[in-house]
Write a structure and sequence with these properties.
- Keywords: Coiled coil, Nucleus.
- It is found in: Nucleus.
- By secondary structure, the protein is mainly alpha-helical.
- The chain has 2 domains: about 55 residues, no CATH class; about 45 residues.
- The chain is built from 5 helices and no strands.
Amino acid sequence: MAHYRASESKREQFRRYLEKAGVLDSLTNVLVALYEETEKPNNALEFIRQHLGTGEPDSADAESLRLELKELQQKHDLLLEENKDLKRRLLQYEPSAEVGGAE
């Protein structure tokens, strides 16, 4: 009998944990949305994944993001080079700290 109560207590703790973390509300909302769908999806699990925000991104979206990342990395590299060049050119026109202190 004590074993039954211990497992019931653990089950209740887990339920409270899920409730506190918002898991129960999220699952309930997704299941209600699935229930209210007039045309049930062929893949209910995929429906749940997408509505929970854990679905895999579309390959088109992923490819678009890869291209954007590549472009931004190239732009970043160009800006770093430009920054180095401008610093080098600026040093040609600014007197060094040693010359300024000697005057």
